[in-house]
Write a structure and sequence with these properties.
- The chain has a single domain, classed as Conserved Hypothetical Protein Mth637, Chain: A.
- It contains 2 helices and 6 strands.
- It has helices at 57-70, 98-104, and strands at residues 15-18, 21-29, 36-41, 44-48, 77-81, 87-92.
- Strands 1, 2, 3, 4, 5 and 6 form a 6-stranded mixed β-sheet that branches.
Length: 106
């Protein structure tokens, strides 16, 4: 089945509620010219970061960027899967963050 960019289901962030908070996927593009939210790809937020993917620099930059973007404390943001991959799973220990995440995707 091919993806249709005009289909809203293909462009929707997949968010999971857990007992610990809100979980969602991210596709990181390191070594970009600037940091920015670059849309949604396969149900994941696509984020460009200027940091290189070495020694955890891109992971630290991602947490800092998400904290600023969503207005939450960095201590509430955890990378639960994919620390050495460009595909990551994020957990934010704040149940009230879902509306902010959805507003980013519009």
């Amino acid at each position: 089945m091919s993806k249709n960019p005009n289909n809203p289901e293909d462009n929707r962030l997949k968010i999971n509620r857990t007992k610990k908070g809100i979980s969602f996927g991210i596709k990181v593009l390191p070594r970009a010219s600037r940091e920015q939210l670059a849309g949604i790809l396969d149900g994941k937020l696509k984020i460009k970061l200027t940091a290189p993917p070495v020694s955890g620099k891109a992971n630290n930059a991602l947490v800092k960027y998400l904290s600023k973007l969503l207005g939450v404390n960095k201590n509430l943001i955890k990378i639960t899967h994919g620390e050495t991959s460009t595909h990551k799973q994020i957990l934010i220990a704040d149940d009230n963050i879902e509306p902010k995440l959805n507003s980013l995707c519009k």
